[in-house]
Amino acid sequence: MVSEMQNSEHSELSNFLKVVNKIESAFRENRELVSIILKKIMEYSKKLEEAYGKEFKFKIMNFCGTHEWTITHFGIRSLVPKNIELVAGPGCPVCVTPSYFIEEAIKLALDGFTIYTYGDTYRLRTVNSVRGYNSLSDVRSDGDVKIVTSFAEAIADARRSGRESVFIGIGFETVAPGYASAIIRGIVPENLKIMSLVKLTPPAMFYTLEILREKPTEPPVMGVIAPGHVSTITGAKAWAVVSENYGIPVVISGFEPIDVLLSILEILKQLVKGEAKTVIEYKRAVTWHGDVRAQRIVAKAFRVVDDAWRGIGFLPESGLRLREEYRKIDAFAEIGVEDLKPDKWVYDLPPGCRCAEVTLGKAKPTDCPLFMRICTPSKPYGPCMVSLEGACAIWARFGSGGLADEIAKDLGLQ
Ligand code: SF4
């Protein structure tokens, strides 16, 4: 019986993987389609050049670190015309988690709590030393710090050990339903507290657009490639305010190279037509209203707060904290960890690190003099070099070129 069940599960999994591979190849390996899309992109870019002049740069911001990965890994920057500038945005939760919370987690680890953390947060360096330690990885020999891949894993381990523990709950809207579901179902043991550091993405996008608007010397952001994964939960409607208030096109994009190229094409098409709409390219996963059930459980477990973003400061209504009814498992309410308040926030990037400018689309990783000199993936100095969603870490690993360069040469673009 068990073996029958295992066989059926195995075959379901293998069918699922076949479908995933098929979708992946359709959006990754179709050179003919790439060539058609690129020709259209060239056409629109030419029209824009005629309308705005040769020097005008059309800055398109990809909010999400995974889009930055796709763009850099597949060399998409070298494929698009020179008047299109693709810039990274603030979509890396590890990059924007304030140093203060990691410092608090280090204190807790040294005071005998077990700390559960994701692998990238584990390597994140603080600006201030805590009793001689600068990261959770440093403290591992003197404290109990465990790397987990999910909240469920932390729950299971805390139940087994019975030890007083804290889970560092970082992430964007995508992870919040998983946290909320466990909280509401009451499966989090009281010996495990959650330090909820979940951040909401649209407020960061509004802030980024505002500050780039305030500085007329910067080329303005003319279009946004919005995060597909986040939008599976929030729905595309969460981004409509960007196109409505800032008058620029927004495309909710998938993560394969052809998804990103199609999104760039849609933005250029709208710019040529003088439109500013929010459009879903990632139709295989995202709807206009999103996952309403997930939104409900998130609202039941969490309240929205003004929250601090590393190197940037407090952004209105940009974070989630547990509701009062769950205070027994809230690290901020129960074990004396003070939440960060605007009057306590201090600039928290290490000297010379330009991570905040990188996440706000004002600088490229290579503009930082420390890039690949002092700050490298094996020895990250600033937060954007830690996670694979951080622009500096992505640029350090993949640079540019690759398959895209070959296609660009085939098409006579280089
Ligand atoms: S290369 Fe390192 S130091 Fe420079 S901006 Fe990126 S993370 Fe900061």
From TrEMBL:
Any Pfam family the entry gives: HypD
Is the keyword Plastid assigned to this protein? no
Q: Which Gene3D superfamilies match?
A: 6.10.20.100, HypD, alpha/beta domain 1
Q: Per UniProt, what is one GO molecular function of this protein?
A: metal ion binding
Q: Which InterPro entries match?
A: Hyd_form_HypD, HypD_1, HypD_2_sf
Print the keywords alphabetically: Iron, Metal-binding
Its family? Answer: Belongs to the HypD family.
Its recorded name reads: Hydrogenase formation protein HypD
Its source organism is Ignisphaera cupida
